[in-house]
Design brief:
mainly alpha; 9 helices; about 190 residues; Tetracycline Repressor, domain 2
């Protein structure tokens, strides 16, 4: 028998999401074409809709997967030596993420600001999680004022780092020190 083995539904969904992730650096999620994804997967367009009932469901799955990749990169690996679990480690990993996955990061941010509801929802969830982790990492109480300040810090950081990756106007260490200084000024302990 020379036929290909059939994929399970979970494997096929994972394959389709992975194709979306591979396309995301050069194509905003809302511009991914179902025909191109299906072609790359070697399936028909209608079969893709067997796994994802609508384009929106597919786009949401790809966006959630991109957010999970960001989380996997941001959180310290178990057994990280030194200050890997602190704020400095998190900022360093974030800058590294944007340096490595700049286009994916921009597609995520632009998709959220472009009014795409499925991207905006995942983006808001991701930022909320960032705020929670930030407050916990800083050892600060979780109240409305501090949440607002941490959220503003992340917005500033997101924009500055994205611009810095395009045009590094200072050494990386100076960028990280600046980010930490801004954070310390916003949220003195």
């Amino acid at each position: 028998m020379t036929g290909r083995a059939r994929r399970s539904a979970d494997d096929r969904r994972a394959q389709l999401v992975q194709i979306g992730l591979e396309l995301l650096p050069t194509t905003p999620v809302q511009e991914l074409t179902i025909d191109e994804v299906a072609r790359r997967a070697g399936i028909s367009r209608s079969l893709l809709f067997h796994y994802f009932p609508s384009k929106r469901d597919y786009y949401a799955a790809v966006t959630r997967a991109a957010a999970e990749l960001l989380w996997a990169h941001l959180l310290p690996r178990p057994g990280t030596p030194g200050d890997g679990s602190g704020v400095d480690g998190m900022l360093d990993r974030y800058v590294g993420w944007v340096e490595t996955f700049r286009e994916t990061h921009l597609a995520f941010v632009r998709g959220a600001s472009g009014g795409d509801p499925w991207v905006a929802e995942v983006y808001a969830e991701t930022r909320d999680r960032l705020v929670e982790v930030g407050l916990r990492t800083l050892g600060l109480p979780d109240d409305a004022r501090r949440r607002q300040l941490v959220l503003a810090f992340f917005a500033f950081t997101e924009d500055l780092v994205a611009q810095w990756v395009l045009e590094p106007t200072m050494p990386r260490e100076e960028l990280l020190a600046l980010l930490r200084d801004v954070l310390d000024r916003l949220l003195p302990r």
